[in-house]
Design goal:
Radius of gyration: 53 Å
Mean pLDDT: 85
Number of helices: 8
Low-confidence stretches: 1-25
Number of strands: 30
CATH topology of the largest domain: OB fold (Dihydrolipoamide Acetyltransferase, E2P)
CATH superfamily of the largest domain: Nucleic acid-binding proteins
Structural class: alpha+beta
CATH architecture of the largest domain: Beta Barrel
Distance between the termini: 134 Å
Strand order of the largest sheet: 3-2-1-4-5
Strand content: 35-45%
Largest sheet: 5 strands, antiparallel
Number of domains: 6
Length: 540
């Protein structure tokens, strides 16, 4: 195309030499305005007669400024044999001047300005000081334009890349375009110049200035002035980055660090976070185990809370370090995103970039509180947390669980399973039997809320040889447990298997007569017999 343009330029230069003075015998003259009429000007160009030019051939600005005696350029189109002017034109003079200027701009590759006035097939119609030029859509920009209306009526810079071979200047007065212009040509040239200039500074560690042109899931594309660089999402910040749009938007200008430049492929890898030192490099010297820090909650997961203690330095509060309770709730029950927490540093590992934090250790340890607050014999109120075969775990207000062993539920009742008497969440009162904060043990008793009936009541009320009515509560291979009805609720005795009257069918809940045959206060046991019962004989 360059050779074609050079040939075309040569043709035009020859045409210019031949036509500028001789086309139709015309030439451009300086004429003096001698008379201003309502619709025209009388102009003297040095011939025997003056010429008349209609005002419509002048611009509004020219009309406002012209006065008698002013000199103006006009094209003397025809003169008769008596040197009398037949025709002169202001428009031709102006357009010829514009054409001459454009021929020169074509020759020197100079940039000219024009206004986009319309569209035609494949491109725009550009007005350059009254002359029409064709601007193909493909020559508007480096990349194809999607919306052709956005350039309408805009003034733009272009370069003339092709001129028509005019036979005479009269053709300039028509609606035809006589030149092709391009905006893309000089943009590409400028881009190449910038690229060459950039190559000199695209070295690892150098700081460059660029404009964000596109944002993707994996990073940001930055226009460095002709070359695009990729800023990967992992190089945006030392802190956690979910999406590049959290830090940039299209059109943002900024400074970036060249991490890598591949001259062969023209690929530039950029960094942004590298403008600041990596906080992990000095983390171990600034954070020690046991020190208190503040942190902002940035993420909540099933196994804990991620907290930012400074930009780019994150730590984990593991689930086990959130609360002193043995089975903490989900982390979201304790904190929300954005909360600022007081924390204690547990450990820090620069190599693995791990910072372990604790929330619970900023608060007094519940077992320490319990150890200071309670002592053996104190009464305490809590709620049943867990029911097991061997007893109840009771959660007290301080957040720790105490154990009521099955043997400490009742002085007198034989309890098969604690769930027969209690339900989860039930409010209960108990007495502290033993407390060991260091071992996190708390022994409680419900039966100690009342005085031990085996000391006074039972010996006073029950005597060996006496007969009582009772209710069968449990039948076993070694005997039958019976609740004795004698005025003290819950007192039970055991009818030994050898003392069971097999002639009487038994079921749990049946009422029967029994006789006390043994009382062991030390072991808190009452032995019973169903044989030789006088009271039953009397009833019969």
């Amino acid at each position: 195309m360059e050779n074609q343009l050079k040939t075309n330029l040569g043709d035009i230069e020859t045409l210019y030499e031949e036509t500028i003075h001789r086309v139709e015998g015309g030439a451009i003259h300086k004429g003096k305005v001698i008379t201003i009429r309502p619709d025209s000007y009388v102009i003297d160009v040095g011939y025997k007669t003056e010429g008349i030019v209609n005002k419509s051939e002048f611009t509004e600005d020219e009309i406002e400024g012209i006065k008698e005696g002013d000199l103006v350029d006009v094209f003397v189109d025809r003169i008769n044999e008596k040197e009398q002017i037949v025709s002169i034109s202001r428009i031709k003079a102006r357009l010829i001047k514009v054409w001459e200027r454009l021929v020169e701009a074509f020759n020197t590759k100079e940039i000219v300005k024009g206004v986009i006035k319309g569209k035609t097939k494949g491109g725009y119609i550009l007005d350059i000081n009254g002359l029409k030029a064709f601007l193909p859509f493909s020559h508007v920009d480096i990349k194809p334009i999607k919306d052709t209306d956005i350039y309408m009526n805009n003034e733009i810079d272009v370069r003339v890349i092709k001129l028509s071979n005019l036979k005479n200047y009269s053709a300039l007065l028509g609606d035809q375009t006589h030149m092709v212009v391009s905006r893309r040509v000089f943009i590409e040239e400028e881009r190449e110049k910038k690229i060459e200039a950039l190559k000199g500074i695209l070295k690892e560690g150098e700081i460059v200035t660029g404009t964000v042109k596109n944002i993707t899931d994996y990073g940001v594309f930055v226009d460095l002035g002709g070359i695009d660089g990729l800023l990967h999402i992992s190089d945006i910040s030392w802190r956690r980055v979910n999406h590049a749009s959290e830090f940039f938007k299209v059109g943002d200008k900024g400074e970036f660090i060249v991490l890598k430049y591949d001259d062969a492929n023209g690929k530039v890898t950029l960094g942004y976070k590298q403008k600041k030192p990596d906080p992990w490099e000095t983390a171990e010297s600034r954070y020690q185990s046991g020190m208190r820090v503040k942190g902002k909650v940035i993420s909540i997961v099933d196994y804990g809370i991620f907290v930012e203690v400074e930009e780019g330095l994150e730590g984990l509060v593991h689930l086990s370090e959130i609360d002193w309770v043995s089975r903490p709730k989900h982390p979201s029950k304790y904190v929300s995103i954005g909360d600022v927490l007081d924390l204690v540093v547990l450990s820090i590992n620069k190599e693995n970039r791990k910072l372990s934090l604790s929330l619970k250790q900023t608060k007094p340890k519940p077992w320490d509180i319990v150890g200071q607050k309670y002592k053996k014999g104190d009464r305490i109120v809590g709620r049943v947390k867990t029911i097991t075969d061997f007893g109840l775990f009771v959660r007290i207000p301080e957040g720790v669980d105490g154990l009521v062993h099955i043997s400490d539920i009742s002085w007198t009742k034989h309890i098969r399973h604690p769930s027969d008497m209690f339900r989860k969440g039930q409010r209960v009162e108990a007495v502290v039997l033993n407390i060991e904060p260091q071992k996190e043990r708390l022994a409680l008793s419900i039966k100690h809320l009342t005085e031990d009936p085996w000391i006074k009541e039972i010996p006073a009320r029950y005597q060996q040889g006496q007969e009582y009515k009772g209710k069968v509560v449990k039948i076993t291979d070694f005997g039958v447990f019976v609740e004795i009805q004698g005025g003290i609720e819950g007192v039970e005795g055991l009818v030994y298997s050898t003392e069971v009257d097999n002639s009487i069918p038994l079921q749990e809940g049946d009422e029967i007569w029994v006789r006390i045959i043994k009382i062991n206060l030390d072991e808190r046991k009452i032995g019973l017999s169903m044989k030789n019962i006088k009271m039953r004989s009397n009833e019969e």
